[in-house]
UniProtKB/TrEMBL annotation:
Keyword Transcription appears in the UniProt entry: no
Keyword ATP-binding recorded: no
Keywords: Membrane, Transmembrane, Transmembrane helix
Residues spanning the membrane: 6-27, 39-57
Domain CBU-0592-like: start-end pairs: 10-84
Protein's name in the database: CBU-0592-like domain-containing protein
UniProt-listed InterPro entries: CBU_0592-like
Length: 104
């Protein structure tokens, strides 16, 4: 791997580490919920980028841990998407307000 590619991968790893720390900090301070979309997206981005760095550098225990983190995050994102879709569908099933008969 060329020096510039290694530098890029390392920089992405730092971005991933910051994303994970920001996510944890926001939940700890009560600004985000652990089940919120911003928290889960930040966690997934962080885990994905740190997985990339670990895999490129052959640090397999860290790569495996981040792969597991990515799997857990993926499941959380699917659950959030399903809940939002169900809420949207339920809102569409509600009876509309009584129609006003303008002809009367």
């Amino acid at each position: 791997m060329s020096f510039s590619m290694l530098t890029l991968v390392t920089a992405l790893g730092w971005v991933g580490a910051v994303a994970g720390l920001v996510a944890y900090g926001m939940v700890t301070r009560g600004r985000w919920s652990p089940s919120s979309l911003p928290f889960q997206v930040a966690n997934m981005c962080g885990a994905t980028l740190m997985f990339l760095v670990a895999a490129v550098n052959g640090v397999w225990p860290s790569a495996a841990a981040n792969a597991a983190w990515m799997l857990i995050g993926s499941q959380a994102l699917v659950a959030i998407a399903r809940a939002r879709r169900e809420a949207r569908d339920a809102a569409g099933d509600r009876p509309a307000a009584a129609a006003v008969d303008l002809a009367a």
